[in-house]
Amino acid sequence: MTRHVEVRSGTYRDSVGLMQASRDLRALDGVSSALVAMATGLNLDLLASMGFDTPDGLGPNDMIVAIEAADEETVREATTALDDALAAAPVGKKGSTDVPPPTIMAAARRASAQLALVSTPGGVAAIDAADALAAGLDTMVFSDNVSIEHEVRLKEIAADAGLLLMGPDCGTAVVSGVGLGFANVVRPGPVGIVAASGTGAQHLMALLDGADIGVTHCLGVGGRDLSAAVAARSTLAALDRLDADPDISTIVVVSKPPAPEVAELVTAHADRLATTTVLGYLGEGQPDLTATAERVAAAVGQRWVTPRRWGEAVSGPRPGYVRGLFVGGTLCDEAMLVAAAELGPVSSNIPIRGGHRLDETLTSAGHTFIDFGDDQLTVGRPHPMIDPTLRLERLERELADPTCAVVLLDVVLGMGAHPDPASDLAAVISRYDGPVVVSLVGTRDDPQGLEEQAVRLVEAGAVIHASNAAATRHALTFVQKGQTA
Amino acid sequence: MTAGGSDLTVVTAGVTMLADALRDQGVATVDVAWTPPVAGTEDDLTAVMLDPRRVPANARAHAAMTAAAAALVDVRPADEALGLRAGHFLHAGPPITWDRMSGPLRGALIGAVVYEGLADSTDHAEARLGAGDFTFEPAHHHGAVGPMAGVVSGSMWMFELYDETSGNRSWCSLNEGLGKVLRYGAYSPEVIERLRWMRDVLGPALQTTTRASGPIDIVAIIAQMLQMGDEGHNRNRAGTLMLLKEWLPGLVGSGLPTGDICDVAAFVSGNDHFFLNLVMPACKLMTSAASGVPGSTVVTTMARNGTDFGIQVSGLGDEWFTGPAQVADGLYLGNFGPDDANPDIGDSAITETAGVGGFAMATAPAIVRFVGGSVADAIATTRRMYDICVGEHQRWALPIMDFRGTPTGIDVTSVLRTAQLPQINTGMAGRVAGVGQVGAGLVSPPMECFEKAIAALAQAVTR
Fold it and tell me: B418 and A111 in contact by Cβ < 8 A?
């Protein structure tokens, strides 16, 4: 075994690109472990945990390359492969007069743009977002881990400039039919969505697509926009934008449970708009996303089509508990709301009001719902919509667990998501007999192929619903009543 | 919404995969070559970037900088113009004490003490300076600027420039020429002799000439020189000729002895850097006009005393933020080499602060080799400077950049976010007092100046 650590100073690449580079190195014959990463504190800890010596005096502008391989020759091959991969994105060649823009302001001066998409590291994303607003651009902040104080400041600056700030932690948006981040491929139509929830918005788009209702814009506002502190600043701005758009006849607001006074503020604002507005706040006693989609269909005057199901509507109560394993936070929330209404309090890493919080090990406790997309589970690794590893491991454990009556899963399709999420899940599901119910969020035109994904899961023995609420209700039919967590 | 799908152009910063997804949908993207900010400045940068005063304050500072006028209105001795008493000297850069002074600054002060008759030998002058017999302070503290050592004493003659927009005035000494000269720290008898001739013949002649000519618009001459291959710091050839052209009728008609007229004309036309000492005070008027805007992150001074590099920032007034001056990278005269060069010195970086000099490098292809590169590098340098500036100077158009104005108003936040330092074209003084010029090249401020400035700017953010 040979261990090789080198430092490449002044070479910056984004973390997703480097995770891909690390993965490609690990896939080489003879390479047993590899890390290509910027020398942040987190990555240096990771390097140490992999058993490498960590060089001193490094900063976030230094790239570390660590390779453990069978022999020196393999290390040389690996570093050469890495050189080629990194050289594919040259920056500022010598002898050229081209200067790549180092900031959003500089980029905005080089071309007439309308929108900025910021996905820089969360600790500094507010800097780039402020720069984008100063450049006069509507701005989507994909980055998470921006403080709520900075979010409020950014939204104040945006309001003063008449600009829209989408985010921070805005994973999904559609602007004039163009998908940004994790977005589904939608057909144009009369609906405009304002979404304080990424997967909530995706589910709504998919449900409307299933009823052949088009969506022209889906403006994400960030999951905290309807909190008391942020006071719906971006929601109000987005409502005004959609109200002014002649192509939009119906607006729908989708959000996790909002602060009550903020909900009132948004309701009052919506009442003043010329455009019909459907308010779809999730919460106890509130309509689920499917019911909200049905109300939208009524508002646009189109016939509602009950969301599809693939596979047999089998059921039969069994001993044990429901185990929900989610990649979408809002889908997890919605499932918990539906389940808790029937089963009483449930456990989760993102508990709803009255629910139990799982401990750090996330060991299942009775009826259990886990959001694998929660910030705490995505530190140092891609979102589970891209990297399914963690959830697949957990799925296997739950299916093997005699206290598990039924597994409930979501599968989210669309741009940016895994190219074929069903196959990995199907491989695990087909090895076990326990019932699996899947909520499949996708549109007809999504790149993964909605029908193909559903069929693959059905063949593995799962039941598939296009409605997350219906999937949850179906899962509950496998649970014997009267059991509590 | 304003743009339909196919018309949408998106600026992307961060994860490449997200930009790829947009391009796959046929959307035009402009991708930022993003790098993390200078380590340790993240929190201060965030506070300043989120300060709602920043954008309008920088727009105000930029507007003031580019609206400033600069007319040469008079030539006067420093004691009369600035009230400099005997034994009171000005120097370049931020404040400094004798014990920390570099060779060239000490040399220039020694020469000035001898020239003013305050010591009977250079040794005596050095002893008196070391004993604290004299006062010295930055020229910037008096609205004045000086190239290299920038030493000014009472009997030296100064150009006086006036900005009718702000009512400000600025001053700069008369350029002595190249080689062994006081501003490079030389103080041999020929240096002192030339200073006396400038005091007795050149100064009075230029006063008479300037008063006869009437105000000369220096901003307009700079606009023309930038279209004639001068960048206004290391090349001032066209500017010098145009100034001489303005002066000629007044000089010839001055009634001075023909010999003096010939000597003055020969001296000015024989020194391609003569006009630098007019570009500098014109730039000083611009940056003074931009100074003192609360919340502005625009740099209003870059100056070096041979030991420290200091900057001032609009929103923070006259406070200096300093770091160690660097040695320039460039070409050397004769047998001189890097070991002979003193760290960076002079107020002439006021030209870059106002957007010419190194910032206008693209317009001066004739000197790109002297300052270390190719024509392509020069164009790329000017492009990089646009990326750290808040705007352009509408009157100073660069033909090779398709008549884009010069990059104007260095933004402290942009420097720290991109780690792209301002490029300064400069002369190099010998390390040892008395040697004079040893070369010319490129230099940048130390990042420390900007790190200190952002900390103070963040402190000044009120909420």
Answer: no
Report the run of H or E that residue A337 belongs to, with start and end: helix A329-343
Examine domains A107-300 and A309-476 and report if their fold is the same: yes
Choose among B1, B9, B11: nearest Cβ to A132.
B11
List of residues 6+ apart from A373 with CB closer than 8 A:
A199, A326, A327, A328, A329, A383, A384, A385
Q: B59-97, pLDDT tens digit by residue?
A: 999 999 999 999 999 999 999 999 999 999 999 999 999
What are the residue ranges of CATH 3.90.1710.10 in chain B?
69-279
> Do the Cβ atoms of A381 and A297 come closer than 8 Å?
no
pLDDT given for residue B2 in this prediction: 45
Considering the domain A309-476, what is its CATH architecture? 3-Layer(aba) Sandwich (3.40)
Q: Which two tokens stand for residue A247?
A: 């192509």
Residue B88's φ and ψ, nearest 5 degrees, are -115, 120
Whether B225 contacts B232, CB under 8 Å: yes
pLDDT at B6: 61
Segments of chain B assigned to CATH 3.90.1700.10:
55-65+293-459
**Per the structure block, which two tokens stand in for B380?**
């790329």
Give the pLDDT mean for A100-120.
96
Q: What is the pLDDT of residue B260?
A: 97
Query: What length does chain A have?
Result: 485
pLDDT digits (tens, 9 = 90+) for A322-341: 999 999 999 999 999 999 99
CB contact under 8 A, A176 and B52: no
Residues A336 and A325: beta-carbon distance below 8 Å: no
Task: Assign domain A2-87 to a CATH class.
Answer: alpha beta
Ranges in chain B, pLDDT < 70: 1-6, 370-372, 463
* Mean pLDDT value across residues A121-133: 96
Give the gap in angstroms from C-alpha B378 to the nearest C-alpha of chain A: 8
Q: Is A454 on the interface with B (CB under 8 A)?
A: no
User: Which chain A residue has the Cα nearest residue B26?
Assistant: A178
Query: Do B438 and B400 form a contact (C-beta atoms < 8 A)?
Result: no
pLDDT score for B309: 98
Count other Cβ atoms within 10 Å, centred on residue A174.
Answer: 28
Say whether B342 sits in a helix, a strand or coil.
Answer: coil
Q: Do B11 and A108 touch (CB under 8 A)?
A: yes
What residue ranges do the domains of chain A occupy? 2-87, 107-300, 309-476
- A175 at the B interface (CB within 8 A)? yes
Instruction: Report CB contact under 8 Å: B22, A117.
Output: yes
Q: For the segment A3-21, what is each residue's pLDDT rounded down to a tens digit? A: 999 998 877 887 777 877 8
CA B291 to centroid of chain Cα atoms = 15
Chain B residues near residue A16 by CB distance under 8 angstroms: 15-17
Torsion (CA) A225, A227, A229, A233 in degrees, nearest 10: 30
Whether domain A107-300 has CATH 3.40.50.261: yes
Please report how the helices B42-49 and B447-459 are oriented relative to each other, as an axis angle in degrees rounded to 10.
Answer: 50
In A135-232, which residue ranges form alpha helices assigned H by DSSP?
148-161, 198-210
Enter the CATH code of domain B55-65+293-459. 3.90.1700.10
Chain B contact for A319, CB < 8 A? no
Q: Which CATH architecture has domain B69-279?
A: Alpha-Beta Complex (3.90)
**How does DSSP assign A28-76, residue by residue?**
STTEEEEEEEE--HHHHHHHHHTTPPPPSS--TTEEEEEEEESSHHHHH
Position A296, amino acid: V
